Amino acid sequence: MQPFTTLTSTPAPLKVINVDTDMIIPKQFLKTIKRTGLGTALFAEMRYKEDGSENPDFVLNQPAYRKSEILVAGDNFGCGSSREHAPWALLDFGIRCVISTSFADIFYNNCFKNGILPIVVTPEDLEKLFDDADRGSNATLTVDLAKQQITGPDGGTVTFNIDPFRKHCLMNGLDDIGLTLEKAPKIAAYEEKLKQRAWA
User: Which domains, ranges and CATH numbers included, belong to the chain?
Assistant: First the structure.
């Protein structure tokens, strides 16, 4: 998993509340178990017209936001079914950070396991960040995980809370497998003891 330390990007404003996982990655794209290739299907029903052409009104199709790595979204982001394909699609598109006032629990947990930082802010701070995001390519946000701080284009800052263990995992690029591998020497030593006992 790619470590998350600092991230600077033009933020994309998605001013929609209750964005569920079916909106993030529609059900017809859930047949794969691969984590790659889902970026083109991200927000498919909003990004594309019925004929398959791009919807020019959708934020991620607009020139300023095509390469956004930060998404500023409305309340209750990631609600609905517990599909892990949702963070996979966001990550494959290039989104490394989602900022909102609230997230559905399962989606929130899945983000950390896939290298995405979900940040919870107050409604007042979200409005400020929406204002920054509305400025398009003329504005960038910098997210500093170590300092737990978001810096806006005019130098203003927003602080956020995060569980220390999750922060450690993100900063060191540790998913569940990585955490297990950190204990590899102890596991090997234990298995060697078992072998010695078996031969004793």
Answer: 6-173 (3.20.19.10)
